[in-house]
Amino acid sequence: MFDTILTGVNLPDGRTGMDVGLQGGRIVAIERSLPAEAGEAIDGTGRLLSPAFCDPHFHMDATLSLGLPRMNLSGTLLEGIALWGELRPTLAREALVERALRYCDLAVSQGVLFIRSHVDTSDPRLVTAEALIEVRDLVRPYLDLQLVAFPQDGYFRAPEGVRSLERALDMGLDVVGGIPHFERTMEDGRASVEALCRLAAERGLPVDIHCDETDDPLSRHVETLAAETVRHGLQGRVAGSHLTSMHSMDNYYVSKLIPLMAEARMNVIANPLINIMLQGRHDTYPKRRGLTRVRELMAAGINVALGQDCCMDPWYSMGSADMLEVAHMAVHVAQMGGIEDKARLFDAITVNSAGAMGLEGYGLAVGCKADLVLLQAADVPEAIRQKPTRLLVLRNGKVISRTAPRLPQLSLPGRPPEIDPGRDFRPVHQG
């Protein structure tokens, strides 16, 4: 007897027509045909069942603040930081909490149940930390929220930056963050990476650094991050986010750098939407794409995850909490259009992101937590291509979001009265 059985679902690994049995909030069986009863039976009708999506890089303290105090007219990273610096002193805890909860509602409806958010600690009031800790507690029943102590204005550069970050960690933030390329000098940036990794080792915390988010091919902080990861025994617990400078680096140097990162077992978190929007702003033509070397990093065995980064804030006027949109952009900008490429990018918003976040019990296997999403698509390539409706979202085996399938009704002579984008448009080679 199961609590729930999902019947006739397809799985990301290519298996089709499978039954998945859930009990006590866990996956307890995956078979072609489960000969058992259940409290609830859900007919998957050949739809794709996936582990819930993970967003390993987001800024929830800034989300939904677009237009405050005004729009980012240049569209650049630096103007976005300047706008946030103007808005930050006016932030109230209640407004921060309200915006964050609204965003979490949207994320859940899109099948995102795991988010790592960077929390700006540059304002000594730490109202951002207070608000996001409150949000973390409020959403815990339905969404896992990790909080990164992030010195937006620079660990050394911001007044009281060092002390404020440590105070935020004392309050209970989960991860040590940094932004070495925004320090005053390259040397200060290098010293900040060393200090932050040492701090994480002393406190037993993971590290997630905004690293080399620049078009400068000579920005070298990821090299320092890899070295400090090994020096402090942090292998597997460190993420380098963005790494956009790698797009512009000399190929010979990268041929040395990637093995160093692999040796350190670093996680890489690329953010295709924001990277393609903000990078290359000083270029005329040709314009650089600004996304790190996703294909090459994956080929080296490095765990590459994809994050959304922003949603309607001073840096990015778009965003919809849709991790499939993130993967969709990665297909284009990383030029990864093959079927196997798409499978790797789907992993980058699911299992790879879960690995970067250090999640336990995540996945689609017997024994994993039943945090799942049923998509109006038959397989992974179609899920990324169509960004389909999330028919069901389950947390601990319970349905927490339900959306009717998109089934356009047609009135066309001689044509079908209804089409199902999740069934009727699969390529022959995927059928």
UniProtKB/TrEMBL annotation:
Enzyme class, UniProt record, top EC level: hydrolase
Domain Amidohydrolase: 40-400
Biased composition (Basic and acidic residues): 417-431
Enzyme Commission no: 3.5.4.1
Positions of the UniProt region annotated as Disordered: 405-431
MF terms (GO), sorted A to Z: cytosine deaminase activity; isoguanine deaminase activity; metal ion binding
Domain of life: Bacteria
Keyword field: Hydrolase, Metal-binding
Pfam families according to UniProt: Amidohydro_3
One of the GO biological process terms: cytosine catabolic process
Protein name: Cytosine deaminase
